[in-house]
Structures are given as structure tokens and as C-alpha cells.
Specification:
With about 160 residues, this protein is mostly helical. It has one domain: Four Helix Bundle (Hemerythrin (Met), subunit A). Helix content is about 80%, strand content about 0%. It has helices at about 5-30, 35-60, 65-90, 95-120, 125-160. The radius of gyration is 17 Å and the shape is globular.
């Protein structure tokens, strides 16, 4: 992307997004789920999104405040998971549907911005709409994680 080779970037991001969805489908369908996979899959998603969001923000194709909002949500989730782990021990890493939707919206935004840069500059309003969908999904999924983890922590504290 930094070399403005948006065709190659589009191909690579699309392949990464499709392979992530296929991987999740196959893991569920054939029961190939594992604790390691439940950690590595969201980590791979985060690496892809951190790299692309940071690059697009550096190129001034996405606003800095959006990057900070997305990172802030992820930071809250990581700190919450670590705090829960330190206080109560091992926990089940099950992604929430709102988080999956958030990931899809973020990948869609990246793809849309790349397409806009390479072929269709006139779809800027679509990118703006997708930015606001990402904002909404970041807020909803972040809030849901706080609610779910907070409820779980409260239940654990009541047991002890």
C-alpha cells in the first residue's frame, strides 16, 4: 500500500479475509477447534487490521481518530482479558457475534478504501458510511465485551 500498488494490496487483503472466514467455517464444521486456535485466529485478525489501518492512516486515507478508537477497543479487551485471567484464572475465549461483525466491517472498510484509491474515487461516500458502521460496531462490541466480562467477573466474585 505504501508503494500505492493497490491492486496487489486488494488481492492480499481479500485473500486474508476470505481465508479467515474459510478457516472459521472449517474449524466449526469439522470441530477442529482448539485453545491455541482460539488465541491465534483473533491474533491473526488483529495483525492484519492493525497493519492495514495503521498504513491507511499513515497515508491519510483513514482518520487518526478512527485508528485510535479501534486500537482503544482492542486495548480495553486485552486489558480486561488479562485482568480476568489474573483474578480468576483460565477463561473460555469465545468471540462475540458483535466482534465478528466488527471484524467484517473493518475488513470491508479496508477493501473499500483500497478499491476507492485504485479504481473508483467517486465512492468516497460509501467509505464514509463504512467508517460510521465501523464506529458503531466498535462501540457495540467493545461495550458488549465489557458487559459480558464484567458479568462473568461479578459471578465469580459472588462464588468466592
Amino acid at each position: 500500500m505504501l508503494q500505492e500498488n493497490f491492486s496487489a494490496a486488494l488481492f492480499l487483503v481479500a485473500i486474508a479475509g476470505i481465508s479467515d472466514g474459510l478457516d472459521g467455517f472449517l474449524a466449526r464444521h469439522f470441530h477442529w477447534q482448539s485453545r491455541l486456535g482460539s488465541i491465534l485466529d483473533p491474533l491473526a485478525d488483529k495483525l492484519l487490521l492493525v497493519a492495514t489501518f495503521t498504513t491507511l492512516t499513515y497515508m491519510q486515507l483513514l482518520p487518526l481518530w478512527l485508528l485510535l478508537l479501534v486500537f482503544g477497543r482492542d486495548l480495553v479487551i486485552v486489558i480486561g482479558a488479562l485482568a480476568y485471567h489474573l483474578k480468576f484464572g483460565e477463561y473460555e475465549l469465545t468471540p462475540l457475534w458483535s466482534s465478528k461483525i466488527n471484524t467484517v466491517f473493518q475488513i470491508a472498510l479496508v477493501l473499500l478504501v483500497i478499491v476507492q484509491q485504485q479504481w473508483l474515487p467517486q465512492i468516497a461516500t460509501w467509505s464514509t458510511t463504512m467508517i460510521w458502521l465501523v464506529v458503531a460496531s466498535v462501540i457495540i462490541s467493545g461495550s458488549e465485551y465489557i458487559l459480558v466480562w464484567g458479568t462473568n467477573a461479578w459471578r465469580q466474585m459472588k462464588k468466592s
